[in-house]
Specification:
The complex is a heterodimer of chains A (718) and B (130). Chain A has 718 residues and is α+β, with helices and mostly antiparallel strands. Chain A has 17 helices and 23 strands. In chain A, helix 2 runs antiparallel to helix 3 and helix 13 packs across helix 17. In chain B, helix 1 links the parallel strand 1 and strand 2. Classes of the chains: A alpha+beta (718), B alpha/beta (130).
Chain lengths: 718, 130
Amino acid sequence: MSRAAAVRTAARRRVRVDAARRLKLAEALLGADTAAACARQALAWLRESLGVQRGLCLFGPAESATVLMPMAAVGVPERRTAGFALDLEARNHPLVIATLGTTPVAFGTNGQPAPSTPLESYRYTAVPLHGRDSAYDLPVGLLLVTPVAADAHGDVAWLASLLGPRLTALRAALRGSESERRLRRERTLLHSIINAVTDPILLTDTEGRIIVANARAEALLAASEDESEGRRRAVALNNMLFSSALSHRAFGEAEPWRHELLLVDPSDGSDLLFELLSTVTVDPREGAGVVSVLRNVTDLRRATEEIEENYRRLRLAEADARAERDRLDLIIDSVADPILVTDPNGNIVMMNAPAERLFTADAAASEETRRAVQANDAHFSSFVSNLFFEAGVMRRSGAIGLVDPRTGEALPVEAISGKIVTEQGEVTAMVTILHDRTEELERARLYEQLKRASAELEQRVQEATAELSRQNELLRRSHIEVEQASAAKSQFLANMSHEFRTPLNAILGYTSMLLKGVAGELMPHQRRNLERVDSNAHHLLAIINDILDISRIEAGRMPLTVSAFAVRDLVGEVLAEVEPIIARSRLAITTLLPDDLPEITSDRQKVKQIVINFLTNALKFTAQGSVDVAARYLPGEDVVVVAVADTGIGIAPEDQERIFEDFRQADSSPTREYTGAGLGLAICRRLAGMLDGAIELTSELGRGSTFTLRLPRVVKRA
Amino acid sequence: MTPLVLVVDDFPDNRDMYMQYLEFSGLRVAEAQNGHEALEQAFTLLPDLIVMDLSLPGLDGWEATRRLKADPRTRSIPVIALTGHALAGHSKGAIDAGCDAFITKPCLPERLLEEIRKMLDGRPRTLRED
């Protein structure tokens, strides 16, 4: 017999309460919606219907509960029930045995001791409360009641048969709603945990459809209808990219799978690089799915790229620096001047090839070479160390006397040293350049020589200049003197002429008077002598007049009186004037004066003087033969020519120029045959020049001469 | 009345030579050997003609002529200038000073007489009668 059937049998056996009361209890129990309310209704019914004084309902709140706790009481103060519990594990406890049993157990009767309870009664009955069909389940509770009337035992059992299942049902209902709440809470927690993850997390099915996605994933892969076109397009693109990435994944693999995925940030369109980490999960109910975690590596990638870029730059810079150093080495080596770098201890740490020639010697080098190198090193070190100890001096230059180790010759150099200083002002090295001064010294020597020579030259030039200016001054003075002398000469001649004339005037006057018989008639020989006096006095006068003419021309005091006249008339006058001379000669005089001779404009007196001179000369120097006077006009040149040709003694070619000089005759000997001061032609040439004309001479010794006067038809000078 | 000619010359031989010849030729003559004498004689004698050598000591011939021509008493007396200087300028200076004719030395006495006669003939008779 099952426990439930045993309880029902017991209930039918002892019944005291009528049906109405039983219905009332059933209604009360069904109306109570909690276990506690249900228990209170049951205890209240026991007290009212059966007169139970004290009652307590213990209850296992959970299906798995092993402890029964007081849930409702009647006739028992609450303080007594607090802290009371019945541990079902204590299998030997009389109450536990009663609880696990199927029938009520009466304690305190038949020698059955009563365990202590909140009822505080030594007699009570323990009624186990069970569910309807769960024979194997633990009991839902235990009802303790003080003793009732004997006929009421059936009613208590009946109540227990109602209350047990009811409490079990209520407990199950309670337990069901609680687990559902817990499940919901756990799901919400899970969601917030997933959403709190900053990386997008998705669960997709085998077709790639999204089953679960956290907020971050939704931002990338989900868009509602009311969002912007750009955002929707970005989301669509991301979905495509994501699906495409997942499609590469084989579902057979159990290992998590990594894949790089480039998506678009729908909010600003920027590129986002993710690392996709997907794992296949298999759920017995849901089937296979893929959990994907996207880790944003954009910044990581950027940082990586930056690091790579920095590294690349570093390498470039390093290469540059290396190239720079190589170039520097090349430059330093290509500099012809020795360059040395010295450390603060005075050790040479670097030098170029030219410096090596001065400061190093190999083991095979001669003793002399090594000595020269040592000497060089000593000189150099002393120069450099001096600068090292001079604080504040950054640069220093000076002359050092080195020796060329190869030749042993002196090598004067100029050393220029500069300190290399760190930012902290610490001297780290010293760079020295040596410059060969041999050429410079040679140049300086040459320059000095040049300067000396130049100074000497300048001195000479100055002396020469001084001498020149002195000469110039002398010349100027002498020129002034000459001019003064010339003026004095002209003045002297003019004065002399005057002084000559005054007594000559008296001589000529008195002679003339005597010849005119002012002092009475003259004896023939007296007259002849007096005539000679007269003739010589006239000759003297002619000479004086010539001299006067020359001095007047030279002093520029010969005036021109220009007029128009006929050459024919002028020639006629001249012939008339020299008629006495012509008469005395036995010469044939011919004239050739064409009718078409034009009038000329010139100084008539001077032209006449020239023609007279020509004619008298011709008559004087021609013993026999003829004298021809011819004039003609040359229209091409607009020139009138007057020529006097004789058949006289002629003039030797070498004398032909001399006769135009002052005081010259062809024969200048004192015993010359022909008298005359010899000034005539000189005057004539000067006069012809004044008239823009010229005198030409053609002559042959012993054959005769032709003097030609060429005159412009119109003189240009006013 | 026979015309009176005043011969002014500082060189006695020339003065005497001209005076002899002019007297021989029938003229009356008077003489002066420098400018001041010439002025005195001219103002005193009021000659019909004056032969004036220009180069005179003291008051020279140009200045003497200027003064004669500036004085109303002697203004109308013809003056024949004589000079040994043949340079240009002398004759112009003489004409500027008021000389009526200019002769360059040497001048033969007959040439001088010729010039004197030309001058005197050109002069109105009435004046000569004064």
